[in-house]
Structure formats: C-alpha cells, structure tokens
Prior knowledge:
The chain is elongated, with a radius of gyration of 22 Å. It contains 16 helices and 13 strands.
Amino acid sequence: MNATPDNLVVLAAGGSGGHVFPAEALATELSARGCRLSLITDRRGDAYGGTLGNLETHRIRAGGIAGKSLVAKLRSGPELAFGTLQARGLLKRMQPNVVVGFGGYASVPTMLAAVFGGYATAIHEQNAVLGRANRLLGNRVRRIATSFDDVRFMTKDMTAKSIRTGMPVRAAVIEQRDTPYPHLDETSTVRILVTGGSQGARILSDIVPAALANLADDLKGRLHITQQCRPEDLDRVRAAYGASNITAEIDSFFRDLPKRLADSHLLIGRAGASTVSEATVIGRPAILVPYLYAIDDHQSFNAHALDEAGGGWMMDEEIFTVDGLAQRLNSLLRVPTMMMRAAAASKQAGHPDAAERLADVVFDLIGTNGERRAA
Length: 375
C-alpha cells in the first residue's frame, strides 16, 4: 500500500547503537515512503543525528533493571510506571497508526502504553537472543521482526508472529555492499580491520598485536592493520606494532569505518549485532570474540550464527589467546581460498534489504489496522 500524509509511525528507541542504528535505518526508509514519523526515547538519550535527529522527539522516563542490584531494580519500577503514563498521554494525543520498538528499556514504557492503548505494534530484535525488554513485550505486540533465523527465548506464540527481516544497517554500510572482496593471493597485502565497538576493547589491544608479532616474517611483511582502540591503549598498541615492523593505522575512532571494512580482507572484533550485520551486508569474513559479560551471553549466539553459516570463526575469550589467534591467522592467511569462501558465505548471510523488509512489516500493520484508533 502507499503511504498517505496521515500515516504516522512512532519509533521507540534509545540506548546503544545496536538499538539506534536499526531505528535510524527504518526511519530513513519510512520517510522515503511518505510516512510521518515521531521518536519517543528516554531522558538519558543523547541527541541523534541523521533522520532520527530531524524527527519530532519526546523524552520520557524509563527504568532499566538488567544487571542492577535489588535496590536499583525497586527504584526503577516507579520510573517505568511513570514513563508508561507519559507515553500513554503522548500516544493518545498523536494517535499513531503503528508503534515500533527496538528493544532496550528506553522502549518499554512506550511499547507498554501502545499495547494497553490498542495500537498496532511491532518490535525488532537485533540479536540471536531475545532481549529482556523484548521478552517482556513479545507476547503482547502484534509482530516481531528478527535479525536471525533462530532466536533464543522465543516462545511458540512469538515465533508464530515473527518474521526475519535482518538487521537494518547504516546508509554508509549499504553504500559499500557492492564493493568486491579485495584481491587476495599468496603474495598480496592482507588488510585486517580490528574493532571492538565505538570505544574499542581492551582484550583486542592486548591480544591482536602480540599474536601478529608471532607470525612468520613473510606474513608480517604483507600485513596492513587498521585497529580501533580505546584512547588509553593507543600508545602501547602503536608501539607494539612498531616493534614488530607491522604496518598499522591506529585510532580511537574512524569516521569512514564502513569503507575501511569494505577494503579489508578480514575483520577481528566483538560480536554485537551491528558488527555482525555490517560484516555480512558487505560480505567480509570475521573472527568474532563474544564479550564474556554480555547479558544472556547474546554475543556468543550472534557469533555462532555466523560461524555456522561459514562466514566467520567464533573464538571465545578462553581460546582468544596470543598463541590461539596466531595459529588461527597462520592457517587462514596461508590459504587465501579459505578466506574467499568465507567472504562469499558472509555475504550470503547478509540482508542488505533489512530496512525495506522491516518497513514492509510496518505497512502491513497499517493496512490491517484500518482507521487510526479512536481517541
């Protein structure tokens, strides 16, 4: 169906980039299709850029409980209840056609208010484990969009109303999706991108330079490393690569990270949903090191999904040692065809049209919802 100027979609998102990136991608797609949009987030949310930054934005209270002490959880309850009342008032005034949540506790008050108010609702789950906020909402909303085929903690009823859309990614990533895998043979330069998220990860700074230093001289001479580190790790990582005579670009932030990923032969990083989806959309193999303390160990399930698809290799922190990584890299870099096959499998696992698929879910809800709910 075609959107009309009266089609209003409310997005409920906030928190980490894993929640915000897909909301931004959906907002861009829905805006292009002619929908009106509004964003409801929590009061701790930062100012957003891109399409989200141009939306009418409302901030409400939200009380997260994951990982908190009992006292903190009890304090969060009133915040959640008050935020739900705030969201109820906003929705009653706006009368949206559809309300879409992206997980995280910033979305819970709005989604609860939407469910209780009888509005058409959908949630998107970024990880291979249903997050705790989405677990609370899953049985209540009309549709569940997932990034993976198999999602842990999905009940039978939830599965019946779910659809795999994939994980929507940033426009800068989509721009690189047609970049061919860089030429690779036994003598060519091997470009490796190392990233642990926006602030890097200490374990990668500890292990990767030392593991690469253990490779044979002929391999080290072919390496070109781009590594994103925490600011406090920059000097020691630069020194480590310098001592090994390995060519490396080190920084705490790269604005052109999607381009650098497209130019790389291999990614080494954590296994957040955004990292996995961006690697697969562009089609780059990855060594994924799940964060040991991730809630419900969701990064292990994300990494396992890519490993099982043949697009990468999961290395738990237990085996992500200097010797373990050196052995893995030695076997990969000596057999270029193995890397090329993994790149092809990675790309096959990707969903570059995830934003369009998720927008289709929203439009299906608009089509089945009839007239906007009466006040």
